Structure formats: C-alpha cells, structure tokens
Amino acid sequence: MSQSHQGSIPTNALLGDVLPSPTSSQIENASHLFVSLSELIQDNIFYHPEIGQHLDTLSAEDKAHLDTLLNGHTVDEHFVSTLGKLIETAIKPQHKHIRICLSDADSYAYRALIGGNIEKNEINPAIGLRGVSRFASDEHTHSFELECKVIKALREKGIDIEIVVPFVRTLSDAAMIIDRLAVQRLPRGLNGLKVLYCCDAPAAVLMADRLLQYFDGLVVNTGNLTQLTLGVDQHNESLTSLFNPEHEAVLMLMTQAVKSASNANKPCIVYCQNLAQYPKVQDTLAELDPVQLLAAV
Description:
This protein is an alpha/beta fold and 297 residues long. It has helices at residues 37-45, 60-70, 75-90, 107-111, 132-135, 141-156, 171-183, 202-206, 208-211, 222-230, 248-263, 279-286; strands spanning 14-19, 32-36, 97-101, 161-165, 195-199, 218-221, 268-271, 292-294. The protein has one domain: Phosphoenolpyruvate-binding domains (TIM Barrel). It has an eight-stranded parallel β-barrel, surrounded by four helices. β4 (161-165), α7 and β5 (195-199) form a beta-alpha-beta unit. α3 (75-90) crosses α6 (141-156).
C-alpha cells in the first residue's frame, strides 16, 4: 500500500502487509503479514495443486508447460519449495504475526490453471466447493496436504505461522477442519499454533460467538462478505454498481464480527481492498476497538 493512502486509514488500526500485494510497496512498520495461498498459487505456481494425481489426463501442451515449470522436480517438491520461499522472503522483522490463509479460490479460478480440467463444473462457483468443503472432499485431499506441508516447513524453520481457515460455514465445519489439521500434524495449540477463521459469509459472523470457541481469532474478508451478503457477483461488470462494502448490512456484520472477537478477547483482522475509497467503512472501523487492518489498494 502506498503511503499516500494512509491518511484515510483509521488511526486505531494496526496495519499489516498482504502477500501477494496489489502493489510493490509495503507498509512502513506493518505489524503483521497476511498470506493468501490461493493468490500465490494463481500468480506463481500456475498449475492446479492436484495436477500430480492426474498427469495422465494432461494434453501434450499442458504437459510441456508443466515440465518447464517443474524443471526436474516433482509437483509436490516444486509446490512446497516455491511457496515456502515466497513466504519466507516476504517476512520482515517487524511482522509480529504471520498468518497463512488456506486456499479460498473457487472452481472457476482453479479451472484457469494448467490442469484445470480436474475441476468439476459448478453452476454457482462463488457459493460452491470452497474452503472447508474443498479440504474435506476426496478429490482435493492431496492439495490440502500440500498446503499443510508448506506451513509445516516454515514452522520447522522456527517461523511462528498462524493458520487462517476460509469459508467456515457451520460449527461442524469448524470441528472438522480442526480435526483434519491435527491429522496433518498441525494440531491447534501444539507449540503455540494458532488457528483463525475467515468470515466470508454472513453465517460465519452471526455464529462468531460459538465459532470462536474452536478458533483463536477471525478475519473479516470484506470482499467475500459483501458479495454473499448482497448476493452480488463482484466479478460481474454489469453488477459493479451493486457491489458496495458500505452497504448498511455489510457494516452491521463487520461491526458484529469485531465485537464478537473483542468479547472473546481474540484478535479480529479486517481485510478490505481499496479501503481508501470507502469512507463509511473507515468511519465504522474507527469507532470500534482497535483492529488489525489489511487495507490493500
């Protein structure tokens, strides 16, 4: 985020960096780092994480592209080492918290990758197989394991990584993902491991008091929350005027999420792209307890 936008940021916010960042600059003295595995995969890996399990389905062209990317390594080796190096390089001394968000991309985004034919067609990808539902499905077990390997590799280097779980829709989702992380040798609490969850849908906010019994904090994904609260596809240009993070319903949910986290004495991180364009969101955050803010522009 460029420094010129910081005048619009609530003064009570603890600012953080985002990886990958929409801009090349980082925030001076940012106190935390938020890593989106989905975006790193799309920007740097280029192939579907499950591609190693489906090599026989690739076209000759895709196979050639994949071989070039792998450069003699296996898919698993390349995936884990590439993401690990990118994340490790982005960590700065002032980052007190490094949080990695497991993949929250939908099937439409995954289909654009090399080997994307692995994905089944969904009528409504935005509300389809995402987050916990994806991690728990038989078709995507291996990619979940790979993401866990990235986190374990970094933690084994002494980096205190925290995990963020996207698209937690129900209490059973919460229990399931905590169990599945434990199976991957990432049990919440062991060696101080913290696990947070994303408020992507209104249900995750409305159930926050109970969901926070399973997690160590929450992240408000303003983009997803706006999309699912208003029923507006944020990527549909004909609906651009309807996608509004300043809608009263979105601000009410954001406020409730922050208060629920505060009542539980757990951190709340608000991720709002283009925050400088939304003065009502700024004012709402300024009136609340100090939040950790990701204000990508």
